[in-house]
Amino acid sequence: MQDKRALSLKAHQSESYLPIGCKLPPQSTGGDTNPCPNSPVFRTGSEPTLSPALVRRVSSDIRVGEALRGSDSQLCPKPPPKPCKAPFLKAPPSPSTWLNSEAHYCELNPAFAISCDRAARLPSCAQDSYVELLRARQNGALGPRNSGTSYLILDDDDGVRPWEPPAAQMDKGQENKGEFVKPLLETDSSFRPNNFESKLLPPENKPLETAMLKHVKELLTNHDPKVIAQHMLQMDCKVARILEVSEEMQRNMGVSSGLELITLPFGHQLRLDIIERHNTMVIGIAVDILGCTGTLEDRAATLSRIIQVAVELKDSMGDLYSFSAIMKALEMPQITRLEKTWTTLRHQYTQTAIRYEKQLKPFSKLLHEGRESTCVPPNNVSVPLLMPLVTLMERQAVTFEGTDMWEKNDQSCEIMLNHLATARLMAEAADTYRMNAEKILEGFLPDEEMSEIFKTEFQMRLLWGSKGAQVNQTERYEKFNQILTVLSRKLEPPPVKQTEP
Asked: How many Cβ atoms are within 10 Å of 215's Cβ, its own excluded?
């Protein structure tokens, strides 16, 4: 009677403090003749035994009768097997029984048997029986519980992968689409002004040729603002790799859209191209206004047309990238100082001036504060606002001069975090932007000359000439900024301060 009580206490003893080497009484011979394995230690952890075929062994430095606690380092990295808690429990089956049962993990996938066999190191008789089991499975004799789950991703073997189709099923020359292809790190710009074949420009041209500037102005004047916005959207989608992205380009990028690529480290060159196009458009719009040397009414009409294009980009096209370029050009110091031009705009184009002041400027402010997701639904956007993100990612050092307006705000740190959060949403919604752009441009027939004047290479050649287009970006922008300042002061000279006698 006392022996039974002692045995009952041992059976209910806490697993965190069990004696080592405690032997269980032999089980009664009946349905199962396999004895319980004589392991010198009891399992004290809660980690389950992942594979019944792998019998855990205890290192020789553990002494019999020594207590093993849950916090001891002896538990790591291989906890001992869990013992039978009561004498009437059924003993675990032998390895030969495990091979014929469906509890073996290698049974989930026949191809994984190689690694399982290598890790388990079963006896030769057990290996032979398992080879027979594999042959039966390959011949179509699947067990009642054949799982399709593959664990080959955990194996370093260079054998067959579950996602790779058999060689017999692949045509010659056909690429395996499931194979990972390392993305290419682009080092050259996609804009090559000297190799650009133009139907409007000669092979070599000088910067700001008068005849070409007049021809471009006529093209813009003779087309509706909505048509102009459609041409700009089409070119923006090509540069940002939203539309017309081939399968080869997707493999080289490693992603399906340029909106994802610009958020990745190896999207450096695409970010530079996006900055190049944006700055070139800003300068081109400023030249369109300041290069109009005619009457004051002509400049006001040009300003009104540009504002109408911005409205179409915002409302009809959903192209926030080009919209931000127009707004940046209209907010340049060389443009805002033209007081007579803006006054004429308010008098002759009152509705356009009101829309610019009451709608476009507040909307642009919200965008650059990182509140794009709150003020614009993704279903209405084809090209999101890209400049804050690419500018932050490509800035090499902290600068205080030449920063954007939103960076001079007291909440600039919070605004920066908003732009980064918007970039993550932008990458996730890349397919939505692509479908929106396809829907907007459906049935659109672009004009050949209009498409050319909105290409970045054409604008670079027009502004800087065939030789100046190859100069460093910073140097080009600084020199042209000086040119715009001279043109602005020529149109409306600054008031002369009268000196006191």
From this structure: 14
Please provide the distance, in angstroms rounded to a whole number, between the alpha carbons at the two ends of the chain.
Answer: 126
| Per-residue pLDDT tens digits for 168-198 | 444 444 445 567 778 888 888 889 888 888 8
Q: What angle do CA 335, 336, 337 make, to 5 degrees?
A: 90
Alpha helical stretches, state H, 66-167: 95-100, 113-120, 124-138
Residues 147-173 have pLDDT tens digits of: 444 444 444 444 444 444 444 444 444
Per the listing, tokens 């990028």 go with 253
Strand pairing partners for 68? 18
Tokens found for residue 27: 């089980």
Q: Helix axis angle, 296-312 relative to 339-348, nearest 10°? A: 70
- Who contacts 54 (Cβ-Cβ below 8 Å, separation ≥6)? 119, 120
Residue 384 to residue 378: CA distance in whole angstroms: 9
Query: pTM for the complete prediction?
Result: 0.64
Q: Which of 219, 222, 236 has its CA nearest to residue 440?
A: 236
User: Looking at the DSSP assignment, which residues form a beta bridge with residue 319?
Assistant: 383
Higher pLDDT, 16 or 372: 372
Residues 260/430, Cβ–Cβ less than 8 Å = yes
20 alpha carbon, distance to own chain's centre = 55
Instruction: Report the C-alpha gap between 211 and 215 in whole angstroms.
Output: 6
CA distances from 259 to 238, 239, 323, 434, 483 (A): 12, 11, 17, 10, 34
What is the Cα 306 distance to its own chain's centre? 33
Q: What pLDDT, on the 0 to 100 scale, is given for residue 104?
A: 44
> In this predicted structure, what is the pLDDT of residue 406?
56
Greatest extent of the chain over all pairs of C-alpha atoms, in Å: 126
Q: In this structure, what token pair is assigned to residue 144?
A: 């009642």
